User: What shape does this take?
Amino acid sequence: MLILLCVAACQQLAAQATVNPTELLRKAKTATERIEAYKTIFRFYEYSHPDSAKMYLQKGMNEFTESRNQIGIGSMTILDAYMDADQGRRAKAKEKHIRALEIFTKENYQNGIANAHSGIGIQEVKSGNFTVATKHFLKALQIFESTGNRDGVVNIYQKLGAVNETSNNLTKALEYYFLAIKEITKSPVKGTNEAWIFNNIGIVYGKMEKLDTALYYFQIALDSCTTPAFTNLRLLTLNNLGILYGKMGEDAKALAFFDEAISITVNKELPENQAHLTFNRASVVNKTDPVEGLKLLKGSLLQVQKLGLKMMEIDIYETIIDAYDRLRQYDSSYEYLKKVRSLEDSLNTTVKSQEMAELESQYEIEKARIKYAQIEAKLKNDKLVTELTISLAVILAVLLIIVANGYMRKKKLNLALQQQEEQLRKSNEIKDRLFSVIGHDLRGPLRQIPPSLELLEHNIMTREETKFLLSSLTAQTRASIDTLDKLLVWGTKQMQGNQKNETRVHVKEQAAETLELLTASAKAKKIELKDNLPNGTCVMTDPSHFDFILRNLLSNAIKFTHADGTVELNADTETQPGFVVFSVTDSGIGIPQEEMEKLFEPFNSASRGTANEKGSGIGLMLCKEYTELNGGKIWATSKKGEGSSFYFSLKSCTEV
Assistant: This one.
């Protein structure tokens, strides 16, 4: 697949013969001129001499900080973000773009605001958030068009082309690229060279399988890469020529182009570009030598995981799966297939569910408002008909009655509408909670079933292994169905009001099913799950609430504990008279102190587990609600790197 190594490539300056920093700064007198001078120096050195670029960037930042020039500080912050992005520090790059956006917004500096939106969009593309990236790019385009900034307009056209290309909307990508070419053709645009666009057009034609046309545009771009200012374009073009020749079956030429590009990334310390190139080179080798290809692919995977390039990580996993399949090593292929699905789910499922829920909520509210408008219009019409039929002698008295009656009916309708909207809001909130909890408690167990069935379909296991796997699937399915039944009961209670059905609960027996359900998850991560509950312990509580609290705390403990760790369940009847204090203790990664204060807050964002498990983010909030509803309390202690302990108390049977 032809890809862009870096969407940020769209912002490079045209090649310059040379730059004399001392002379450039000497001639720059005004604050605006000095900002532009530092930008020019930075871009000249950015790829040819990164250390020099960093030195002048710091010099500019010091100067503008001393003079309290906020626009200068914001401009240097954006350049610093570009350097972080070049060297693979995407989180820092995004943070600095956001900081620059805040500065420019406060100063009402429109071009700066647009540049900051553009930079944020670049990092969102690299994270696979194409919709978010497009929103930032379109915001930047709107500002550049309103200020008449042709350089900015062309720059954003290229980025919109790139994001559409990355998401396979190829016709739209070409439309944006040719809009950029058309704008440049009118008259030269500062900071933009057609070579960048020709390279990107070549990428799109390559994806369309029009290889000869793609080769034509790539060659035009490569012929322009003759100065250090075009280092990044040369990397892009060498990479794309390598991919293209690989698709054409000319592997020797493809590897030669990749090797030349990789040597540049090593010399210039560009880890993200190096990761892309290493993967593409490994993909070519994998076609003819899957053993050597696997070795190169796994090295590339480590680079990509370190840089946090999630979309590329999926591409590498799929190529590794292909290599193992061709080597008939189906067990290894299956393991990587599970990793692909887990990563895809984490990128897509939660976001799509939230978007659908929000759209449905907006639709229902709008429908209610339209209905109210229709009722109000009918009331006005009724009032007119009544007035025309009343005799002149009593018209004033009747009019007063109608007005008073209309006012009261309208007031009642307004109140009814408010109540309807509030009920709708609560219903949607309950629905969202229910869906999130179902995903939190059932998605993990059920997601293991399809890969296991696929493994059975390959028919590569012994009879004993097959029997064991079928037995595990049966137990897992039954336990999941039981969990689903309990969640549906919980959802029904939520719709009817958060009530409790308090009764005597024998802890040891009640917890057995929950522990059985979670045993498979613990074993999968080689975690020892210890049940230290004393026999005969009894509490007064709602059994479904007790199950929910216990299941969530144990699930979280398993999630945040590394392989070969331990999770223990204990109960203390002595510390708090009249209460049983339960504890779930793990040897996991612990919780940072700054997160402890908001641990049980509503809809607190969920962290990822040690095996990249994804939670719903509301489990602890609901645990707190249920504990307090049953007259108890919940709290936690933790030390980062050593583990956590979660405690909750419930009333003892002897005190009721």
Notes: Strands lie at 503-506, 528-531, 538-541, 566-572, 579-586, 634-639, 643-652.
